[in-house]
Design brief:
It is a multi-pass membrane protein. This is DMT family transporter. Keywords: Membrane, Transmembrane, Transmembrane helix. With 314 residues, this protein is an all-alpha fold. The chain has one domain. It has 16 helices and no strands. The protein is globular.
Length: 314
C-alpha cells in the first residue's frame, strides 16, 4: 500500500464518507422538492430564488461563525468567477432549458455520467491516480444508477423531437459540474470550502439574476402567490440543497479528491427514488433495489483503501 493510500485509509476519513453520502442524499431530495415547486415559477426565476436563499444562508452562517468574508486576490477572483459561471450559472441554464426538450428521468441518466467524467478529467488534467478498482467502481456505479433511472421510466430512451438538443444541454450540466468539482482544488486549500462556496454562489447568483431580469422573467406576482409548501421547497433547495450541501461536497474534495468524492453522486437517483416512494407513493421495483445495491458496491470499491481499513478493524 502506498503512503497516499495509507493516509486515505485512516479512521478520520470515515466522517468524510458519511458527510458525502448525506450531501448526495440531500441532493436526491431536491428532485422531490422540485416537484412541489414545479409550475409556480419559471425555471430561471426558481433557480435565481434558490441561490438567493443559498447566498443569504451562507452569509448568515459566516456571520454567526464570526468569520469575516475574505477578500480574494485578483487570481482568486478569476478562479471564483470560473466556478460561479460553470457550477451555478451555466449548470442551471443547461439544466432548466434542457428539461424543455427531454424528461427529468432522461436528464438524470445523462447526469449519472458525472463520476466517469470527473474521474477521467482528474486523471488527464491533474494526474490523479485512477487505478483498476476506481475504474471498475465508477463503472458499477453508473450501471446501478442507469438501472434505477430506467426502471423508474422505461420510456425515457425513446427521445422525441428535439431530444438531441436536450441531451446536449444536459451534458453541458455534466461538463459544468466537472469544472466546478475539479478547478476548486487550489481555492479549497487557500480559502477553505466555506469561503470558496460562498463566493462562487454569490457570483453565480448575480449572473442568474442579471439574466432573469434581462429576459423579463422576474415576476413579483408569481412570487407573492407561492404557498407555504412551495416556500419550504425553496428553503430546502437553497439552504440544504445548495449552501450546506455544496460546502460538504467541497470539503470532501479537499480531503479525498474529486474522483472519490464525485462517485457519491451516483446516490442521487437512488435517494430520489426512495423519497419518491415514501413521500409521493411512487412504485419501488426489484430492479431499482438491485441498481441501488450496485451503486453502493461501486462506491465501496472505488474507495477501496477505506474498505481495507474496515476489514482490518482499524
Amino acid at each position: 500500500m502506498t503512503i497516499c493510500e495509507q493516509s486515505l485509509s485512516k479512521p478520520s476519513d470515515r466522517p468524510v464518507y458519511l458527510k458525502l453520502a448525506a450531501v448526495t442524499m440531500v441532493w436526491g431530495g431536491t428532485f422531490v422538492a422540485g416537484r412541489y415547486l414545479a409550475g409556480g415559477l419559471s425555471p430561471l426565476l426558481a433557480a435565481s430564488l434558490r441561490f438567493l436563499l443559498a447566498s443569504v444562508a451562507l452569509l448568515l452562517f459566516i456571520r454567526m461563525a464570526r468569520t469575516p468574508l475574505v477578500r480574494p486576490s485578483p487570481r482568486q477572483w478569476l478562479q471564483l468567477l470560473l466556478l460561479g459561471f460553470f457550477g451555478i450559472f451555466f449548470y442551471n441554464l443547461c439544466f432548466f432549458y434542457g428539461l424543455h426538450y427531454i424528461s427529468a428521468s432522461r436528464a438524470s441518466l445523462i447526469v449519472a455520467l458525472n463520476p466517469a467524467v470527473i474521474g477521467l478529467a482528474s486523471w488527464l488534467l491533474f494526474k490523479e491516480r485512477l487505478n483498476r478498482a476506481k475504474v471498475v467502481g465508477i463503472a458499477i456505479c453508473m450501471t446501478g444508477a442507469s438501472m434505477v433511472i430506467v426502471s423508474r421510466d422505461p420510456q425515457l430512451l425513446a427521445g422525441g423531437a428535439g431530444a438531441w438538443l436536450g441531451d446536449l444541454l444536459i451534458f453541458g450540466c455534466v461538463l459544468g459540474w466537472g469544472v466546478y468539482s475539479l478547478f476548486s482544488k487550489e481555492l479549497n486549500h487557500s480559502l477553505g470550502p466555506v469561503q470558496t462556496v460562498t463566493w462562487s454562489i454569490l457570483l453565480g447568483t448575480g449572473m442568474l439574476w442579471v439574466t432573469c431580469i434581462a429576459r423579463g422573467e422576474v415576476s413579483v406576482a408569481a412570487i407573492a402567490q407561492l404557498g407555504a409548501q412551495q416556500w419550504l421547497s425553496l428553503l430546502y433547495l437553497g439552504v440544504l440543497g445548495s449552501a450546506l450541501a455544496y460546502i460538504g461536497y467541497y470539503d470532501g474534495i479537499r480531503k479525498i479528491g474529486a474522483t472519490r468524492s464525485g462517485v457519491f453522486i451516483a446516490l442521487n437517483p437512488l435517494t430520489a427514488v426512495i423519497l419518491g416512494a415514501l413521500l409521493l407513493d411512487e412504485p419501488l421495483t426489484l430492479a431499482m433495489c438491485l441498481g441501488g445495491g450496485l451503486i453502493l458496491a461501486g462506491i465501496f470499491l472505488c474507495n477501496k483503501p477505506l474498505a481495507r481499513a474496515w476489514k482490518k478493524g482499524i
